[in-house]
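Hi P.,

Sorry for the delay on this. The queue was packed all week, but I finally got your sequence through. Input first:
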Amino acid sequence: MFSAGAESLLHQAREIQDEELKKFCSRICKLLQAEDLGPDTLDSLQRLFLIISATKYSRRLEKTCVDLLQATLGLPACPEQLQVLCAAILREMSPSDSLSLAWDHTQNSRQLSLVASVLLAQGDRNEEVRAVGQGVLRALESRQPEGPSLRHLLPVMAKVVVLSPGTLQEDQATLLSKRLVDWLRYASLQQGLPHSGGFFSTPRARQPGPVTEVDGAVATDFFTVLSSGHRFTDDQWLNVQAFSMLRAWLLHSGPEGPGTLDTDDRSEQEGSTLSVISATSSAGRLLPPRERLREVAFEYCQRLIEQSNRPLRKGDSDLQKACLVEAVLVLDVLCRQDPSFLYRSLSCLKALHGRVRGDPASVRVLLPLAHFFLSHGEAAAVDSEAVYQHLFTRIPVEQFHSPMLAFEFIQFCRDNLHLFSGHLSTLRLSFPNLFKFLAWNSPPLTSEFVALLPALVDAGTALEMLHALLDLPCLTAVLDLQLRSAPAASERPLWDTSLRAPSCLEAFRDPQFQGLFQYLLRPKASGATERLAPLHQLLQPMAGCARVAQCAQAVPTLLQAFFSAVTQVADGSLINQLALLLLGRSDSLYPAPGYAAGVHSVLSSQFLALCTLKPSLVVELARDLLEFLGSVNGLCSRASLVTSVVWAIGEYLSVTYDRRCTVEQINKFFEALEALLFEVTQCRPSAALPRCPPQVVTVLMTTLTKLASRSQDLIPRASLLLSKMRTLAHSPATSSTHSEEGAEAIRTRATELLTLLKMPSVAQFVLTPSTEVCSPRYHRDANTALPLALRTVSRLVEREAGLMPG
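Then the structure:
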């Protein structure tokens, strides 16, 4: 969230029109052409960057302005702040055909890095990535490893390796591996020189001290990213940057040379004692550059793990955890490339796992550790089930409110689905815990869960999962109450402090409702479902919470993803149960603003999808459908779902789809729909009963006509009903119930259906076509009977309509 001042500036930047921007660019052009690039130029460039970065769409700048920005970026004597701003503005414009930066003519390393950042943002249009990579490599070849300029270029090289791995030739890759070894292993252990002092400074006072460990002790081993000091030398900065790009480079370079094992040899070596012997003796022989880099990377990661065991200052905690995460990921890459590293890594990683497992502050380190143990489970002799249980049972319950961990945890689940082959049931049964992450962090995690849901959906837990998705905003409210009722762990509350809900807190602590709250907060699928309607009423004051509202907005998207997945595994029985659940839950939703409307829209479309999958559903669930349609209470609020149910009855209640369909069933549905239509058209809208949409009335009339065409004894009743509806649509009283357009739609539909019922055989042919008639051939071939029949019916309908009064 931005402050009020920042929000105001962003709003102003977004409101600037193209004409105003053009004038502002003209002013900037004059400033950039001046000899003195002073504070006015800096301020104007800052404003321009805010304007072009504040909107989602790209702003168009005049070519003159773009050319001057590029020229300013290339000026050797230009102040660094101006160059950074020029590069940032040009990156925001990328990709753009108007950019024409020249890499070869830039000499200063800081300028090289800024120009490279713009070229890489352009994408690989004219092989810019390759050109940038080759330019950085030439700088590496021409300068010493400890050269002061390389620290600006190494991050560019890291980006090139990720964007275009095939850029480097073999000799260039070897050179970079050698440089990385030097920077990682042989950085200075002395702190950097301070800036030159004033009149009273003395040479003795400027002598650098030794680098220290995180606990303040003097470092006796090589320098790492966790080493401490007041000032750092350039080679120490290169050490940090080299570690940052190490994993990407190892993945790019991969195993090579005669020592590389194929898959079969590698699996045999994992179980042999020769690997242990080769591991202990590898340091004593001369290794090729890439193997030497892997050996140095292994030593570096082991040293980081050893350093993390020392007591540290509070401010270094996040840095230490980030380094541990990266170290474990690098070790995983090393062990996959060379199994001999696995046995050398196990002891320290198992000790690290035991140390961080019980520390809530170090929970992010558990994810890469779990990935390592699951990847190398058999060779590492690790109990995978215990790792799964700890991950899915404790972490979501304790850390659901951490947005970074929530994203990393769901990413971990997605990335390691191939490792869950034997334990996929554990993941699926843990969906209630995973939904805690989703309920609390729904906006950023919605797309991640849409991708993960197909792996979570199972026929055995589908019904319980659907209930959980529909109750997701309620779960958000309960998690909020859980945090409010617990002692605050930090000075900054994790909940919305503007919302006061004392009655909800009292209900959360009330033993009478503990069973419902505990069910909602359950860690695993229980196989049972609870009706949470009492909680919906108790937690209604929480519906105005912003987090609850955001979660409610995400549920329709999640429901779509759920049904797309469940229809792939559902059998006939499960489809029936899902349809019943849709009907039953349509009037039992958490009362968040706009939530019911969004959910009903999805439920209505999915009910039709289920009927399409299994048309016999209407006959098999006839009693339940009649009960659903038996009351007008809440019909108008569920208009979309009622419309879909009524349409499905008219479409699929036929012997064409199910031989078990009887005339008696058709008559029962006709009577129920006739009564429903009467109640809908006779009641008047009020505060308690809102206006009924005309779509419900037209679909009811159409379905009644379809049923009458299948049981011709009902045609007189249907014709009488349609005549009344047409007359009612003409009456002035209808204006209080429907708009003029709605009344016209009802009148037109009633007239068309009445005309069809005057020709029962044609009505049955049009309203209940056979399977052969529904095939595409009957619609594409002009010589078939269906186009001819439709043209004939159209002429008859038009003739009858012309003879009708009014």
